[in-house]
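--- STAGE predict ---
source: upstream dedup step, 1 unique chain passed
mode: sequence only
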Amino acid sequence: MAKEKETIKNNGSQDYTAKSINVLKGLEAVRKRPAMYIGDVGLRGLHHLINEVVDNSIDEALAGYNDRVIVTIHKDQSVTVEDKGRGIPVDVHPEEKKSALEVVMTVLHAGGKFDKNSYKVSGGLHGVGVSVVNALSEWMKVEVKRDGKIYVQEYARGIPKAAVKQTGTYKGENTGTKTTFKPDREIFKTVKFNFDTVAERMRELAYLNKEVTMILKDETDNQEETYKFKGGLIDFVKYLDEQRNPLHKPVYIEGERDNTPVEIAFEYSESYSENIHTYVNNINTIEGGTHLVGFRTALTRTFNNYAYKNGLIKDNSKVTLTGDDFKEGLTAVISIKVMEPQFEGQTKTKLGNGEVKSIVETIVGEKLSEFLEENGSIAKKIIDKCMRAAEAREAARKARELVRRKNALDSMHLPGKLADCSINDPEHCEIYIVEGDSAGGSAKQGRDRRFQAILPIKGKILNVEKAKINKVLENQEIQAMISAIGAGIGEDFDPSKSRYGKIILMTDADVDGSHIRTLLLTFFYRHMKELIAEGKVYIAQPPLYKIKKGKEEFYAFDDEERDKILKRLKTDSKGKKAEDEKEVTEVEEGTETTTQSKGINISRYKGLGEMNPEQLWSTTMNPETRTVLQVNLESAAAADKIFETLMGDAVEPRRAFIEKHAKYANLDV
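--- STAGE serialize ---
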């Protein structure tokens, strides 16, 4: 290992000093507008703080100087990230006239990542830097081991408490950086970290960087996990396909052209969905980009050439394999390293470098051709799978034509049960996909007709995780959604043609409602993923309880909020608590009401249809008062794993998942 690291050090990256720290601009307005820098101030933004610090440690690994990252969540919800890298430089910066460590920690867009001699490639170029983490932390402490000395600097909400100082010495070659920070309660809605969320990113990084050991500790409940995968992307593909039946062992492709390393692993399974995850410098490019285009192009051309050359497809065959046929059942991970990545797209996670397409296409074409020639039995299995997909595609084409003809007979070209809005601008329009005719009726009456459309759906739609595309298109409820949204599906899908800027899923707060919501999310994830990537899919949050005291009415969205309202209402005018805080709060199913001793009535909603139009509007549909959850693809690999677990064929993983997460669910059984 040491020999390998020494080889990488000779690439010119050894001159990592204060001169390497290039300052772009100072830190401005981060605390006033935190969402501009970390996305939001909820759980997603909170966990982004850890990612930013960890990314710095991974960049050291990419440069060949770090093989271990340790993340510790402390009981007070402060976090320590420790690595074995070179340690942030501490000498005086030539322009800023202060320690380079202080510059990195207090100046936005300052760091070695902008110096090509320090980092050949970096994942942090798209990020906001550790200085933002510092600005949004109540306090931060950084300890650097470098050149046999230990240096420390502490900060309060981004401001140094004192200059960088040496606090001790050490022996040996154990350099590195240790950063501890505590998120600021004045900024974030919650400062409690979720172990599973942090673990998912740590696991992902360990797969992508097989030379690095990732260790996660949580002192709040004494959890500890170590992630180290010698197989790298091969192990990643196996993990993603754990609950599928693979047709063959993963195919591994590795190569480099024009200083751009390319690493790919893929396999086909008996499933019908495609599952591709792409990364650039460890960044999850959820919208794909030129590297994905290059992979698809090479895959289609190489398999087709092999199939014709070896008589697996006859020249007079009516079947022609297209790119779509090679998607069915494909699981792949693409990881490339680019010196100067250019990102674009709605979420800035789409690679735009034009030269990357030909690089990936060439490497995949050459390596895959060699593999197929040496593994004829595997090639035949894959071609047979794709031939069946082509037959399903042809059936799907006929189904789409049927849908089009059906729409052509309809003067509005829209499903009859859709109550559309009057505004035509998609940016200002939203559609509620509502469970059941009863709730749909209330929603139609309670909505704002100018910009809100309502589409009721009956029962449970088809589980698309287990169905070919032609069967998906035969489902009437799915047909209605496709027609209403207007963006098409499959090879016709174009997210820019969506008739609505927001697609809101509104289901009952019971077991059936949760199942229907999961079925809907599975459909959007598998067939309209770009709408999720662009932030257009939401989940409505109807209240669970109505609490009434006299003429006053309150709504609670969970048990905790219900209890808070009850405590407040049970307090008398002198501020004393009622004699019995543990009065009955259980309610019967339906909207039966339990009358409390203080004249408080609680109604437990079983279904959306039990609310009148005014209640549904004020609690769930009014943009000024409602709560909606935006569905995002922060971790596409984790999302795919969950959908396969919940909607796939394997029973045991589903049971284990439900048992583990049951405490977070509202189940009426």
